[in-house]
Fold this protein.
Amino acid sequence: MQSTRPVKLADPRLDLTFAALADPTRRAILARLASGEASVMELAEPFTISQPAISKHLKVLERAGLIAWGKDAQRRPRRLTAKPLASASEWLEAYRHCWERSVVRLDAVPEELQAEPAGREPKGRTREKRKRK
C-alpha cells in the first residue's frame, strides 16, 4: 500500500538517522538496545574497539535522536528511541512501489529466458555483445 503523506525531500533529522544507521557498529548497538537499556560498558563488551570509539558512536546515535540516556543511581543507561526509526521507515515506505515493480520485472526474466528457442540469444543480447565483455 502506498503512503498518502507527502515525502519530505530535505529533512535534516532523516539525514542524521540514515548517517547513523550507515555504520555496522552503530546498528549493532541499536540491535542490543532493542532488547532493553544498557550501560556504556555493557554496550562496549562485544566490540574490540576502544571506549572512546564506543563513546563517539553513542554521540552520533544521540545526535540522531536514536538513543537517549537516563540516570539510574550511579549509572547512565542508554535506551532506544523509536521515533527517528519510524520516520525512516515511513520515508522508505513511500518508495516501496518502486522496488516492488523492479522485483516483478526481475521475476519475469527467467520465464522469458525459458520461452526463448534453443540457440537464440535473449532479447537485447547478441553473441557479439557477450564477446566484448
